[in-house]
Amino acid sequence: MSSDRVVVIGGGPGGLAAARAVSDVGTKVLLVEEREQLGGTPIIENYAGLTPRGEPARPQIQKMIDAVSDNPLADVRVGTKVKSLVGDEGAFTLTLEGPGSQGPETLECAAVIIATGFGHFDPGRSTQMYGYYEFPDVITQADLEAMLSEGKVVRPSNGAVPERICFVQCVGSRDRQIGNEYCSKVCCGVASKEAVELRETLPDSKVFIFYIDMRMYGYWENEIYWPAQELHHVQYVKGLITEVLPKGDRLLVRGEDTTMGRPMELLMDLVVLSVGMEPSPGTREMASLLGVKQNKYGFIDAIGSPLDPVGTDRKGIFACGAALGPADLEDTVSSGASAATRAVACVRALSAGAAS
Amino acid sequence: MSSDRVVVIGGGPGGLAAARAVSDVGTKVLLVEEREQLGGTPIIENYAGLTPRGEPARPQIQKMIDAVSDNPLADVRVGTKVKSLVGDEGAFTLTLEGPGSQGPETLECAAVIIATGFGHFDPGRSTQMYGYYEFPDVITQADLEAMLSEGKVVRPSNGAVPERICFVQCVGSRDRQIGNEYCSKVCCGVASKEAVELRETLPDSKVFIFYIDMRMYGYWENEIYWPAQELHHVQYVKGLITEVLPKGDRLLVRGEDTTMGRPMELLMDLVVLSVGMEPSPGTREMASLLGVKQNKYGFIDAIGSPLDPVGTDRKGIFACGAALGPADLEDTVSSGASAATRAVACVRALSAGAAS
Lengths: 356, 356
Prior knowledge:
- 2 copies of one chain form a homodimer.
- By secondary structure, chain A is of the alpha/beta class.
- In chain A, strand 5 and strand 6 form a beta hairpin.
- The radius of gyration of chain A is 22 Å and the shape is elongated.
- Chain A is built from 8 helices and 17 strands.
- Helices cover 29% and strands 28% of the residues of chain A.
- In chain A, helix 1 packs parallel to helix 8 (329-355), helix 4 runs parallel beside helix 5 and helix 5 packs parallel to helix 6.
- Chain A has helices spanning 13-24, 41-44, 57-69, 141-150, 187-201, 220-230, 281-290, 329-355; strands spanning 5-9, 28-32, 74-77, 81-88, 91-97, 105-109, 111-114, 118-120, 138-140, 164-171, 206-211, 235-247, 250-257, 262-268, 270-275, 277-279, 317-319.
- In chain A, strands 9-15-10-11-12-13-14 form a 7-stranded mixed sheet.
- Chains A and B meet through helix 1, helix 3, helix 6 and helix 8 of A and helix 1, helix 3, helix 6 and helix 8 of B.
């Protein structure tokens, strides 16, 4: 038995890009999403604007959803889980469990793309001294996205408008103590974008970003980093924040200003933790279920990287986007399309084989 | 008249990835390269190892060349220039001028992918105080790649083995004075990779990297940056280098150590300038000839970025890799495949139209 179909697991930006690309080039694709809705993290976490240019996230992601939903070659199942995979490249049999009580369903496919993305680092882990679960005014970038999306940024503790807001970078990244030595790549850009949005929403606020290195690579440098400083007066301080403590009804942020070479203590109304990326539970689960190699952090290993950035160690199974590690949206979209071309090649190899 | 073919302009990693992807999904592709050989910058500039993992560049790039050359759907023309393009998406007519005296040739195609890449910033521009054209022991990252590739790193001035070597980051990047406000994205990673290769080649050398921010994003952090410091003892100094002067038969490097907050002067045997990316002459020329929008730096503008990272403002014309701006190899390969899926969609739209 065999199939002329590609299956994409995960309906976020990477999976949507992959599914669109498979159907765009004329191959049947099934997109399987465990949640009840498509769109992935930007939709689930209610992102405000996209990094770097700040276009509203929801309509942009909706366009990606429409491009898949409208394509007659693409089939979409939400609320559906992958339960098992057997077989080899060109002839996999997949078992799915969908909504309702009709029981598991099996189907054939030639190749699989894992697009199960990332989850945010939990800033409440024991090594973290920032009081995320103790102080309501300590929030994450994702919490702030949701507030910015609603157009209402307040201190969760008392509903007041915050005057002094700071970002703490590299929470859960570049940190051997917690086992995440890698850099999460996007947090510098996202913090800067959110800082600009804050300054636009609350023109009287003062906004600080405490960083180790500002990783504003490529055009993020000129598109966000320069304007954030020059037009929006975001204050970047090279420094390490060691702890956050309550002081009166505010928060005392303690650390070291590494440029000035001295300790610093600053009062803040709102502290935003720039939490890093970790493999999503779905990425860990699918890697294990499908039997593909993970790196020491649990992301799927692109064993042929950099020139083969989407292949796994199992033939016919590809991965894309943040299932492979920290990735921005642009990376993720291209990576999805890249995996699509490799998966479609498996379908074609099969039909060439059948014809001979 | 119309065509079921995609044309890719440029035979470096981006163009090779694009051409491979087009043919992998079953569509005819013509790859046009102005030079006499494929492989682009990594081959022309004789790269040693690929960033981040240091695999030898030439055999890796050769695999990409073979994947295209061996595909019956792919046709390759080297030594060939694009002279003009007329028509619209689905029905372009391209004029090529190839080797020999047979005169220009026209052919039809449905879509075009521009993969003309980048050129290195010229560190001899008048604003640059590093003496690249004055002192033979001031070289660029590309010059060093060629030396590492030959396995022989010496001071060009006297053929001696260098003992003290430094990298100066952000030469031609993040610099408003020269008009390049963007970050060139890869130079931190490449410098770190080269620094490790230097320490392996010359175990008695001392290697310094002077940087503004180390942009070791994603896995570059754990794959290069940590080992460079901990295993290879590369010395990273946050500082700005303002000038390079001769002193005896060595070079005096002057600047400010921004962490220590004091001026510094260090003697070096070899100074490596981490020169940034600019649009290649081919990128400027093709953008102009094909009539696609360029950004203020001359790179091709991906007007729908980040969620459409490869579309230009002209329908049916896509761009990929460093023709769009600073990109690492992994970005470039995925971006090439991404452009391929969009270009193939133009071919399919056409055949769907013809069938109806």
